[in-house]
Protein backbone atom coordinates (compact mmCIF):
# COMPACT_ATOMS: atom_id res chain seq x y z
CA UNK A 1 0.00 0.00 0.00
CA UNK A 2 2.76 2.40 0.95
CA UNK A 3 4.63 1.46 -2.21
CA UNK A 4 1.62 2.33 -4.36
CA UNK A 5 1.22 5.70 -2.61
CA UNK A 6 4.85 6.55 -3.19
CA UNK A 7 4.54 5.67 -6.87
CA UNK A 8 1.39 7.80 -7.17
CA UNK A 9 3.04 10.81 -5.54
CA UNK A 10 6.12 10.50 -7.76
CA UNK A 11 3.94 10.29 -10.85
CA UNK A 12 2.02 13.41 -9.84
CA UNK A 13 5.24 15.33 -9.24
CA UNK A 14 6.59 14.30 -12.64
CA UNK A 15 3.32 15.38 -14.32
CA UNK A 16 3.33 18.81 -12.61
CA UNK A 17 7.00 19.32 -13.48
CA UNK A 18 6.27 18.50 -17.11
CA UNK A 19 3.40 20.95 -17.29
CA UNK A 20 5.60 23.73 -15.82
CA UNK A 21 8.36 23.05 -18.32
CA UNK A 22 5.84 23.13 -21.17
CA UNK A 23 4.46 26.48 -19.99
CA UNK A 24 7.94 27.98 -19.72
CA UNK A 25 8.73 26.76 -23.22
CA UNK A 26 5.54 28.32 -24.58
CA UNK A 27 6.29 31.64 -22.88
CA UNK A 28 9.83 31.70 -24.25
CA UNK A 29 8.54 30.87 -27.74
CA UNK A 30 5.99 33.70 -27.58
CA UNK A 31 8.65 36.12 -26.38
CA UNK A 32 10.96 35.19 -29.25
CA UNK A 33 8.12 35.56 -31.76
CA UNK A 34 7.24 39.02 -30.41
CA UNK A 35 10.89 40.08 -30.46
CA UNK A 36 11.36 38.93 -34.06
CA UNK A 37 8.18 40.60 -35.32
CA UNK A 38 8.85 44.20 -36.48
CA UNK A 39 6.69 46.87 -34.92
CA UNK A 40 4.14 48.44 -37.23
CA UNK A 41 4.47 52.22 -37.18
CA UNK A 42 1.37 54.19 -36.34
CA UNK A 43 -0.25 55.96 -39.24
CA UNK A 44 -1.92 58.51 -36.99
CA UNK A 45 -0.44 61.98 -37.25
CA UNK A 46 -0.87 64.70 -34.67
CA UNK A 47 0.01 67.39 -37.17
CA UNK A 48 -3.00 69.54 -37.92
CA UNK A 49 -3.47 70.72 -41.52
CA UNK A 50 -2.16 74.19 -42.13
CA UNK A 51 -3.63 76.89 -44.35
CA UNK A 52 -0.59 77.36 -46.56
CA UNK A 53 2.83 78.71 -45.63
CA UNK A 54 3.43 82.01 -43.91
CA UNK A 55 6.19 83.42 -46.13
CA UNK A 56 5.58 82.42 -49.75
CA UNK A 57 8.11 83.56 -52.35
CA UNK A 58 7.01 85.84 -55.16
CA UNK A 59 6.44 84.06 -58.48
CA UNK A 60 6.98 85.68 -61.84
CA UNK A 61 3.98 86.70 -63.93
CA UNK A 62 3.61 88.10 -67.47
CA UNK A 63 4.80 91.73 -67.81
CA UNK A 64 7.26 91.34 -64.92
CA UNK A 65 10.81 92.43 -65.74
CA UNK A 66 14.27 91.89 -64.26
CA UNK A 67 17.89 92.89 -64.77
CA UNK A 68 20.36 90.14 -65.58
CA UNK A 69 24.07 90.69 -64.92
CA UNK A 70 27.15 88.49 -65.40
CA UNK A 71 30.02 89.73 -63.18
CA UNK A 72 32.60 87.66 -65.09
CA UNK A 73 31.01 87.95 -68.55
CA UNK A 74 29.52 91.47 -68.80
CA UNK A 75 28.92 91.08 -72.55
CA UNK A 76 25.86 89.01 -71.63
CA UNK A 77 24.37 91.63 -69.29
CA UNK A 78 20.72 92.47 -70.07
CA UNK A 79 18.46 95.14 -68.62
CA UNK A 80 14.69 94.97 -68.23
CA UNK A 81 14.21 91.42 -69.47
CA UNK A 82 10.42 91.19 -69.72
CA UNK A 83 8.24 88.13 -69.21
CA UNK A 84 6.06 87.80 -72.30
CA UNK A 85 2.32 86.95 -72.18
CA UNK A 86 3.16 83.30 -72.91
CA UNK A 87 5.52 83.14 -69.92
CA UNK A 88 8.80 83.10 -71.90
CA UNK A 89 11.75 85.51 -71.86
CA UNK A 90 14.28 86.12 -74.62
CA UNK A 91 17.86 85.62 -73.42
CA UNK A 92 20.75 87.03 -75.41
CA UNK A 93 22.82 84.34 -77.06
CA UNK A 94 20.83 81.29 -75.85
CA UNK A 95 17.27 81.82 -77.07
CA UNK A 96 14.07 81.65 -75.00
CA UNK A 97 13.25 80.13 -71.63
CA UNK A 98 9.96 79.55 -69.80
CA UNK A 99 10.06 81.42 -66.47
CA UNK A 100 6.43 82.22 -65.58
CA UNK A 101 5.51 80.98 -62.11
CA UNK A 102 9.12 80.69 -60.94
CA UNK A 103 10.59 82.27 -57.82
CA UNK A 104 13.78 84.32 -58.10
CA UNK A 105 15.99 81.37 -56.99
CA UNK A 106 14.26 79.14 -59.54
CA UNK A 107 14.66 81.80 -62.21
CA UNK A 108 18.35 82.13 -61.40
CA UNK A 109 18.83 78.37 -61.76
CA UNK A 110 16.90 78.30 -65.06
CA UNK A 111 19.08 81.06 -66.53
CA UNK A 112 22.26 79.45 -65.19
CA UNK A 113 21.34 76.18 -66.91
CA UNK A 114 20.55 78.01 -70.14
CA UNK A 115 23.90 79.84 -70.21
CA UNK A 116 25.75 76.71 -69.13
CA UNK A 117 25.67 75.75 -72.81
CA UNK A 118 27.95 78.67 -73.77
CA UNK A 119 29.68 79.55 -70.49
CA UNK A 120 31.55 77.41 -67.99
CA UNK A 121 29.84 77.50 -64.59
CA UNK A 122 28.31 80.97 -65.17
CA UNK A 123 27.87 83.37 -62.26
CA UNK A 124 24.75 85.49 -62.63
CA UNK A 125 22.72 87.99 -60.66
CA UNK A 126 18.97 88.54 -61.08
CA UNK A 127 17.23 91.69 -59.81
CA UNK A 128 13.49 92.18 -60.14
CA UNK A 129 12.67 95.62 -61.55
CA UNK A 130 8.97 95.74 -62.31
CA UNK A 131 6.52 93.22 -60.92
CA UNK A 132 2.96 92.86 -59.72
CA UNK A 133 2.74 94.49 -56.31
CA UNK A 134 1.36 92.22 -53.57
CA UNK A 135 -2.33 92.83 -52.89
CA UNK A 136 -5.44 91.43 -51.25
CA UNK A 137 -9.11 91.79 -52.10
CA UNK A 138 -11.86 92.56 -49.58
CA UNK A 139 -15.36 91.67 -50.70
CA UNK A 140 -18.80 91.43 -49.20
CA UNK A 141 -20.06 93.28 -46.14
CA UNK A 142 -17.09 95.54 -45.40
CA UNK A 143 -17.05 99.31 -45.37
CA UNK A 144 -14.99 99.73 -48.55
CA UNK A 145 -14.78 96.61 -50.73
CA UNK A 146 -11.90 96.63 -53.17
CA UNK A 147 -8.28 95.79 -53.93
CA UNK A 148 -5.61 96.84 -51.42
CA UNK A 149 -1.82 96.82 -51.44
CA UNK A 150 -0.27 94.24 -49.16
CA UNK A 151 2.68 96.27 -47.91
CA UNK A 152 3.61 94.24 -44.83
CA UNK A 153 2.52 91.23 -42.81
CA UNK A 154 -1.24 91.68 -42.55
CA UNK A 155 -3.67 89.38 -40.75
CA UNK A 156 -7.29 88.73 -41.63
CA UNK A 157 -8.67 91.02 -38.92
CA UNK A 158 -6.24 93.78 -39.91
CA UNK A 159 -7.31 93.45 -43.55
CA UNK A 160 -10.96 93.84 -42.53
CA UNK A 161 -10.06 97.02 -40.64
CA UNK A 162 -8.13 98.35 -43.66
CA UNK A 163 -11.23 97.74 -45.80
CA UNK A 164 -13.38 99.85 -43.48
CA UNK A 165 -14.45 97.20 -40.98
CA UNK A 166 -17.67 95.23 -40.86
CA UNK A 167 -20.93 96.80 -41.95
CA UNK A 168 -24.01 96.56 -39.72
CA UNK A 169 -25.37 93.61 -41.67
CA UNK A 170 -22.12 91.61 -41.74
CA UNK A 171 -21.87 88.06 -40.46
CA UNK A 172 -18.72 88.22 -38.32
CA UNK A 173 -18.73 84.50 -37.54
CA UNK A 174 -18.34 83.19 -41.09
CA UNK A 175 -15.65 85.21 -42.85
CA UNK A 176 -14.28 83.24 -45.80
CA UNK A 177 -10.65 83.50 -46.85
CA UNK A 178 -9.86 82.36 -50.40
CA UNK A 179 -6.27 81.58 -51.40
CA UNK A 180 -4.98 81.78 -54.95
CA UNK A 181 -2.09 79.95 -56.60
CA UNK A 182 -1.39 81.27 -60.07
CA UNK A 183 -4.68 81.58 -61.91
CA UNK A 184 -6.54 79.12 -59.70
CA UNK A 185 -8.28 79.38 -56.33
CA UNK A 186 -6.77 76.43 -54.48
CA UNK A 187 -8.08 76.74 -50.92
CA UNK A 188 -10.74 78.38 -48.80
CA UNK A 189 -11.39 78.45 -45.07
CA UNK A 190 -14.05 79.95 -42.81
CA UNK A 191 -12.96 81.99 -39.77
CA UNK A 192 -15.07 83.03 -36.80
CA UNK A 193 -13.77 86.57 -36.38
CA UNK A 194 -16.52 87.37 -33.88
CA UNK A 195 -15.29 84.61 -31.57
CA UNK A 196 -11.67 85.73 -31.89
CA UNK A 197 -12.56 89.31 -31.03
CA UNK A 198 -14.87 88.41 -28.15
CA UNK A 199 -12.28 86.08 -26.60
CA UNK A 200 -9.50 88.65 -27.18
CA UNK A 201 -7.45 85.82 -28.64
CA UNK A 202 -6.00 86.28 -32.13
CA UNK A 203 -3.78 83.20 -32.22
CA UNK A 204 -5.96 81.78 -35.00
CA UNK A 205 -5.88 85.04 -36.98
CA UNK A 206 -4.23 84.01 -40.28
CA UNK A 207 -1.63 86.07 -42.12
CA UNK A 208 -2.72 86.99 -45.64
CA UNK A 209 -0.76 85.94 -48.71
CA UNK A 210 -0.49 88.05 -51.88
CA UNK A 211 -3.62 87.55 -53.96
CA UNK A 212 -5.83 86.40 -51.08
CA UNK A 213 -9.49 87.41 -51.06
CA UNK A 214 -11.63 87.74 -47.96
CA UNK A 215 -15.41 87.61 -48.20
CA UNK A 216 -17.78 88.74 -45.45
CA UNK A 217 -21.32 87.38 -45.94
CA UNK A 218 -24.56 89.05 -44.91
CA UNK A 219 -26.10 88.00 -41.62
CA UNK A 220 -29.46 86.24 -41.53
CA UNK A 221 -31.29 88.96 -39.58
CA UNK A 222 -30.52 91.62 -42.17
CA UNK A 223 -31.72 89.32 -44.94
CA UNK A 224 -35.22 89.20 -43.50
CA UNK A 225 -35.24 92.72 -42.11
CA UNK A 226 -36.59 94.10 -45.36
CA UNK A 227 -39.74 92.04 -45.00
CA UNK A 228 -40.81 93.87 -41.83
CA UNK A 229 -42.58 97.25 -42.17
CA UNK A 230 -40.85 100.22 -40.57
CA UNK A 231 -43.33 102.79 -39.28
CA UNK A 232 -40.75 104.93 -37.53
CA UNK A 233 -40.40 105.83 -33.89
CA UNK A 234 -43.73 106.47 -32.22
CA UNK A 235 -45.63 105.37 -35.29
CA UNK A 236 -48.97 103.63 -35.00
CA UNK A 237 -49.23 100.16 -36.45
CA UNK A 238 -52.63 99.81 -38.12
CA UNK A 239 -54.80 96.91 -37.01
CA UNK A 240 -56.78 95.21 -39.71
Please outline what is shown here.
The radius of gyration is 36 Å and the shape is elongated. It has a five-stranded mixed β-sheet, covered by helices on one side. A three-stranded antiparallel β-sheet has the order 2-1-5, with helices on one face. Strands 3-4 form a two-stranded antiparallel ribbon. With 240 residues, it is α+β, with helices and mostly antiparallel strands.
Itemize the secondary structure elements and their pairings:
Blueprint (H helix, E strand, L loop, with lengths): L1 H35 L28 E5 L8 E5 L5 E4 L3 E4 L5 H12 L9 E6 L4 E6 L5 E4 L6 H7 L12 E7 L2 E8 L1 H7 L13 E4 L3 H6 L15
* Beta-strand fraction estimate: 15-25%
- CA-CA gap between termini: 118 Å
Instruction: Kindly state the percentage of residues in helix.
Output: 25-40%
User: How are the strands of the largest sheet arranged?
Assistant: 7-6-10-8-9
Uncertain stretches: 1-10, 28-50, 230-240
Q: What spatial form do the alpha-carbon principal axes imply?
A: elongated
Structural class: alpha+beta
Individual helix count: 5
Kindly list the characteristics that best describe this protein.
240 residues; alpha+beta; three-stranded antiparallel beta sheet; disordered N terminus; disordered C terminus
Descriptive report:
This protein is α+β, with helices and mostly antiparallel strands and 240 residues long. The chain is 28% helix and 22% strand.
